[in-house]
Amino acid sequence: MSFFLLILIYTGIYALMAIGQNLITGYGGMLSLCQAGFYGIGAYATAILTVTFGWNFWATLPVAIGLSALFGLLIGLPTLRLNGDYLAIATLGFGEIVRNVLNNWVSLTNGPMGIQRIPMVEIFGFQINPYRKVAFAILVWVFVVALYFIFKRFAKCRLGRALMAISEDEIAAGSMGINVTIYKVVAFMLGASSAGLAGSFFAVYSLSVTPGSFQFMTSVLVLCMVVLGGMGNFKACILGAFIIQFISYLPQLLGVTNLVPAQAKQVFFGLILVVMMVWRPQGILGREKFTYVKKSAKGIQEG
Fold this sequence. Notes:
Strands 1-2 form a two-stranded antiparallel sheet. α2 packs across α9. 72% of the residues lie in helices and 2% in strands. The protein has 13 helices and two strands, in the order αααααββαααααααα. By secondary structure, it is mainly α.
């Protein structure tokens, strides 16, 4: 039961990142590989503010989200005029820059040693101990469900429709009056903020952060979750997050950790991407279909 709760907690944390990645890649058609960078920014924002300045976790949450969104804006404005492989390389570079800054800014981040003894989350005076996993799992999944409904609402409104139009044909979308750059940047900021939120929860769950937790492979894992579940489908991203996390911990669950090298996971996840792209590019659940009902003038008056 404890092991299942561990998978559930990490599924929730990664699902927060995958939901944001889905808005960027699944709806906007932008191949971003820097969710790990925003994840690290959110985690270190919470860690520094709680340990160094004595802030409460709930006070650090909007700062972590806002700071990640700000960096999403800063990286988005110069790079989102790029497409395809060029955008992927640029965002990959940003993620590596963040990790190296965290690793070398010793006076702020304590360098490779990271930040330890992060305070636990408190709600109405009660501490949520991460070692007692049930309460923490409930807390994380409350935020996953809330973010799911918020982003699903975004997908149904003008933002989602504009992003889908941009991903289908950027030139045609621009000719119809859609400001392509603004919509891309907004999507990037929202995706970054969700990763910052995930980073905050990771910090207070692990009670310590180090730069090694925010490597490029984390961004690849999040992309795998979106592709595996189905791009353009937020429920599918959550499903993909659960499958990937379950596979990650399967050797420990079966007691064969010594027989499976660490690099095998990376090979396996890369294989998943290749297989899904070749045989089922729409993912397990596929893209979510939305229907828009246009009411007549008479119907509006009657309503």
